[in-house]
Amino acid sequence: MSSSNTLLERRYAALGLMLIAPTVLVFCAVIIYPLVSAIYLSFFNIFTPTLEGEWVGLSNYTELLQTGQFWSALGNTLIWTIGTLSLQIIFGIAMALVLHQNIWFRSLARSLILFPYFISTVVAVLVWKWLFNDLYGIMNHLLISAGIIDFPMDFLGTMPNAMVSVILVGAWKYFPFVVIAVLARLQSIPDALYEAAKIDGAGPIARFFDVTLPQLREVLVVIILLRAIWDFKEFDLIFLLTGGGPINDTQTLPLLVYQEAFALNDMGRASAYAVVMMAIMLVFMIVYIRRTRSEGGS
Amino acid sequence: MAEVIFSEVKKSFGAFTAVHGLNLHITEGEFVSLLGPSGCGKTTTLRMLAGLEFPTSGDIQIGDRVVNDIPPGQRDIAMVFQSYALYPHMSVADNIAYPLKKRGVGKADRSIAVAKTAELLQLTELLKRKPRQLSGGQQQRVALGRALVRDPKVFLLDEPLSNLDAKLRGYMRVELVELHRRLGRTMVYVTHDQLEAMTMSDRIAVMEGGVLQQFAPPAEVYAAPANRFVASFIGTPGMTLMDGALSRQGGTWRFEAPGISMDVGALNDRAEPGGACLGVRPEHVLIGQGPVNGTIQVVEKTGHENIVIIGLEGGQRLTGRVPAPQSWSIGENVQLSLDAEQAHIFGPGPHGPRLNLPSNVATPDLKSAAN
Amino acid sequence: MAHLRKILFNLMAWSIVLAVAFPLFWMLVTSVKPQFELFRRPPTILPETWTFEHYWTLLADTNFLVYFRNSVILSSATTLLVVAVATLGAYSLVRFKYRGRESLAFLVLFTYLLPSVVLIIPLYLLLVQLGVSNTIFSLVIAYTTFALPYALWLLRSFMAGIPEDLESAALCDGATRMGAFRDIILPQLLPGIISTALFTFILSWNEYLYALVLVNSDSSRPLTTGVMNMLISSFNIEWSLLMAASVMMSVPLIIVFAFLQSYLTRGFGAGGVKG
User: Fold this and answer.
1) For the domain that residue B149 is a member of, what is the CATH number?
2) Which terminus of chain B is more solvent-facing, meaning fewer CB atoms within 10 Å of its CB: N or C?
3) Cα dist. A97→A103, A187, A208 in Å?
4) Per the structure, how many domains does chain B have?
């Protein structure tokens, strides 16, 4: 007997397929099918309350590219993503370096830092809205008593305050991710590298730039890609803090999709926005996927 | 009835072929080593025998059954892994009992068998421990115990000693040979360590690049390597190999290389005039007098003997081995001769075949000498 | 000198840590202050009068308990479903060979990064057509869209960390593939499963967008949209009450942090960054 696949091998493959079948089924039903229909829907005009629609071809897309709202939402998304991501990275690396040192009650400090990442966005937003409260919020109180401002500030209702606030809260909520990831990598840098650098006469700053940073490079690229993807698609935080306001000045693409579909009741147009948004994200996603796979997924 | 037969077994992983048309007939009760450098296909061969990899083509037979379609658990084999693969969440006793449990042996019988095996391997004290609480040597014995507990037809051992320190390794070699003698079971042993293969095996299958190079008793592999690869792979320090040319002189042959020229006697009918390779084992280099001139370059003292590296006039280096009292200083000029009776001639190329006549083979029994 | 520097460094480090943790501290403090104390100028850092009245109000006079129950059911159901499916799926993806396996792994990673807003419109339409919208069940379905790829990705990497030799040894010892899975792999995977379950639970517990779109009746609303509704619908915002709700909503998380934090850190290493 010499077939290309032995009976045993085929039996194992069949078992493997059986085990993956539930996953595939769920994937097809709740991810693949909706994904395909999102693209399909984007060629229709659908009135949300009645769910009745008509074929409009590419007109959703052509209109979308001509409206200012799409472009301003795209601009807001980029400002938000770049702003919050840079803060997350800078603050995250700094915090990781601090926590890597042997400070008092290190594990407690680590838990406290980690906590904002895991709490619900709803909780984070409620707390920050209270902190930002114009009359009784502690932020205004602190800023006034420090003499930085004379009158209570409107953190979320005016520009550019609203965008800055959103970016700051985003950085606060998501920088722990960077901390943990960088910390894990820091702990795996061999001490011998630092000792060698010390022997070669490198001071603490030179050691950071010549030893630590090059060692962090790989993991930072992955973190930046992941966080860029996640920040780009962030909905909850911005929607709950400002709702996209004042006017539409903090409206990002995910908020625009939501607004079109469930406030302006045009699901076709909303789908078109979503598809375009996904297309933009695809660039980052492909880079990330390529990276993870080349690093030896299989 | 536990012979193992590979017939034209081939294994490819995509475009890469790990094993090329392997034919191997291991007889009942034999201890066979699969020996070769890493990536030579020896582990793939063993894993195919175990049923953990599947041959792309060809048949594998255990006893009188072709086992290609039989899952590992029904092949009546037991395997010891290089990593030991002890189940971390089970105690030593449960680890050893697992193969019996999977075969439906009752609880009472299981504990009797486990106790017996533990006794044999001096594990009785450790039965309640978890694998991570054991030393490397103890883990190794548990892995062995798991294989021994149910008396399989064939034992498969995948570099079982490579994670032990040198001293323990030497001890376990003797133990394994002892065990094999007592059980009389077929054992297939994968290793990259020629010392293990030479000292333990009835026969060695030398593999390289997925191709079987030679399958013979250790003494024969040493004294009559089938080709240049085997010659270079077996023996420490290695055989000196010199490229040169053969020429016919009546019924005999002459080998010439820069700095060296010698009669090598009669060769087999694969010999042709032209490029060839001369191989000389260190113990067949006779230093003192002779037709060859050289300079001592390195002397390595190992205690009971000295290894000398000698530079010849043509730039060729030669390794010799002499008993300890004899030594030379570096830079000294010496005369030497090569034992033509024991010289090996190979055809050209890295796998050039052996050209000596079979009568040239001297076969001291290395295995019993090692014991 | 070195001693002084160490103390200064520690003080600096801890002031940053405390600044980061301050909003959470403020949430706790506000929740136990009586309403009138909130309007004090300057604000009191620690409450002068401690009170748990807001917690009582929350439990007795609002829908909080209903939301809480819904969230527990919703998150538990999602976690159970997703972890069960993903454990089998990850075993298949890591340890079996068949055509399309590679593309499937690719698809998992792709969906792991996919934005919810792309799927939400068709999902909404689908669930309306099936007549299950406005139920906890519809949210379970919706939550699998992000939870399943996530859990698969995590478990895949935990699975890959289990030495293949263990399974091979079990097969040689006479186990079937599924026998080896049950006897050997599952016990080894347990920490990974716990870690994945915790992450999945937290993700589901915190989800907002799907809950906002798919459910608009109080009887099946989870905590996120429920508590948010308390903010929007109340005539005059009672911050103490909202902070009490926030604290209560974070209780499961606090439990995880207190007792199971090592599993969270493990999950981080396996899924988030290493890939």
Assistant:
1) 3.40.50.300
2) N
3) 11, 10, 10
4) 2
B191 and B244 housed in the same domain: no
Q: How many domains does chain C have?
A: 2
Question: Are residues B345 and B354 in contact, defined by beta-carbon separation less than 8 angstroms?
Answer: yes
- What are the phi and psi torsion angles at B33 (to 5°)? -100, 135
Domain A67-294 class?
mainly alpha
Instruction: Identify whether residues C126 and C256 lie together within a single domain.
Output: yes
State the residue range of the domain holding C45.
Answer: 22-51
Helix/strand/coil for A43: coil
C5, part of any domain = no
Please report whether residue B251 resides in a domain: yes
Q: Is A7 on the interface with B (CB under 8 A)?
A: yes
**Phi-psi region at A67: left, alpha or beta (left = phi > 0; alpha = psi -120 to 50):** beta
Kindly list the residues from chain A whose CB atom is less than 8 angstroms away from the CB atom of residue C122.
33-35, 37-38, 41, 271
User: Do B142 and B241 lie in a common domain?
Assistant: no
Q: Give residues 50 to 109 of B whose Cβ lies within 8 Å of C.
A: 50-52, 71-74, 77-79, 81-83, 85, 87-89, 98-99, 102-103
Kindly report the backbone phi and psi dihedral angles of residue A185, in degrees, each rounded to the nearest multiple of 5, phi listed first: -70, -40
- C175: contact with A, CB 8 A cutoff: no
- Asked, for residue B230, whether it belongs to a domain, the answer is no
C170 touches chain B (CB under 8 A): yes
What CATH number does the domain containing B273 carry? Answer: 2.40.50.140
Domain assignment of residue C103, yes or no: yes
Tens digit of each residue's pLDDT (9 = 90 or more) over C55-112: 998 888 888 999 999 999 999 999 999 999 999 999 999 999 888 888 888 888 888 8
* Whether the Cβ atoms of residue A132 and residue A139 lie closer than 8 Å to each other: yes
Q: Does residue B332 share a domain with residue B184?
A: no
Residue C143 has pLDDT above 80, yes or no: yes
Four-residue CA torsion sign, B190, B194, B195, B199:
positive
- Tell me, yes or no, whether C175 and C208 share the same domain: yes
CA distance B251 to B241: 24
Local structure of B42: helix, strand or coil: helix
- Residue numbers in chain A where pLDDT is lower than 70: 1-4, 294-298
Q: CB–CB of B352/B274 below 8 Å?
A: no
Is there a domain that residue C126 lies in? yes
From the list C39, C101, C117, the residue facing A254 with the nearest CB is C117
- Regions of chain B where pLDDT drops below 70: 1, 359-371
Q: Is A263 on the interface with C (CB under 8 A)?
A: no
| pLDDT tens figures, C212-231 | 999 988 889 999 999 988 87
Domain boundaries, chain A: 7-55, 67-294
Residue A289 touches chain C, beta carbons under 8 Å: yes
Residue A146 has a pLDDT of: 86
What does the pLDDT look like over B288-315, one tens digit per residue?
A: 888 888 899 999 888 888 899 999 887 8
Is the CB of A4 less than 8 angstroms away from the CB of B58? no
Gap from A103 CA to chain C (nearest CA, Å): 6
**Cβ-defined contact of B103 to C175 (cutoff 8 Å):** no
Residue environment code for C35-66, b if the CB has 16+ CB neighbours within 10 A, otherwise e: eebbeeeebeeebeeeeeebbebbeeebbbeb
What CATH code is carried by the domain that includes residue C194?
1.10.3720.10
For residue C164, what are the contacts with CB-CB under 8 A and spacing of at least 6?
A: C95
Q: Is residue C14 part of a domain?
A: no
**Which of B191, B223, B255 represents a domain boundary (last residue)?**
B223
User: Residue A237: its pLDDT value, please?
Assistant: 93
| Sequence-distant (≥ 6) Cβ neighbours of residue A126 within 8 angstroms | C27, C227, C231, C242, C243, C245, C246
Give the domain extent around B264: 236-370
Model pLDDT, residue C256: 83
- Of A262, A218, A255, A219, the closest CA to residue A237 belongs to A255
